[in-house]
Structure formats: structure tokens, C-alpha cells
Amino acid sequence: MRKINGVAAEFLAKKRIAVTGVSRTPEGHGGNVVHQRLRERGYEVFAVNPNADEIAGERCYHDLKSIPGGVDAVVIATRPEVADATMRECAELGVGMVWMHRSFGEGSVSPDATRYGREHGITVIDGGCPLMFPPASDPGHRFMRWFCHVPRSV
């Protein structure tokens, strides 16, 4: 097991990141917030939603395999039951790092997806939010880190 700070830093060192579950109705949706903040921080970020071609004026991909050139890491911000299929797609594509978003409640975390990813050599962060860690963080998310489910190690 590795400490979360180191794993989060490794994840955020990746420059091509897909965010699954970016919503067409973005108000208050965690995936949209993560997508936008990573873009603002200089990451090459790809929105994934099987039901949208465009979100907030930007291209949206229906699945991970549609992203030209692939990605280095994935943030899953969907319902937990969708996380399983996404994790399998990550394994198929050779994506080495996946973060299942979770602030309050269960978020996107699926124990089955976590287990599958780890069995297939994927580093899985099963909780918390990339925006809780530098260089993507902000004061609000750093504060939330103390109240939300963030694993101490992965």
C-alpha cells in the first residue's frame, strides 16, 4: 500500500486525463467541476459521456477508446454501477491510473471495479477528488478533504 499523497501526486503528474460522467447539465456535478478545473490548470482533459457529442462548447467522447491518442489517467465520475464497465475499458486500453471520484456518499466508488482494476495492474484511488491535492487543489477542496471519504493509502 502507498500513501495517498504520493499516489495523488503521481496521478496529477499525468497530462492527458479523461473524466467520465461529465454531465450535459453541469450545475453541481462533480465530473464537470473536475473537468473544468483540470483544464484551467493546464491539463489536456477529455470529457466522456455516451449521450453527448459536446458539453459546454467542447467535444465530448462517447467512450475512452474514441479519444485520439488515448489518455494517461481516468477520473470516474459516474454512478458506481457504471464504474465497473469503465474500469474494464481502462484495463483493455492499458490505462495505468484511475481515480473514482467520491466526496459525500458513495460517489463513483465501486468495490468490484476497485478489485478488478487492481487485479489488472491499475493503480486505483477509490475515493476523494483530484481537486483535493496540489497542483489541482483550491482552498475549498483542501478543506473538504478532511470531511469526505479520502483513502489514506491505496
TrEMBL record:
InterPro entries: CoA-bd (IPR003781), NAD(P)-bd_dom_sf (IPR036291)
Pfam family, one: CoA_binding_2
Coiled coil ranges: none
Boundaries of every CoA-binding domain copy: 11-102
UniProt superkingdom: Bacteria
Name used for this protein in its record: CoA-binding domain-containing protein
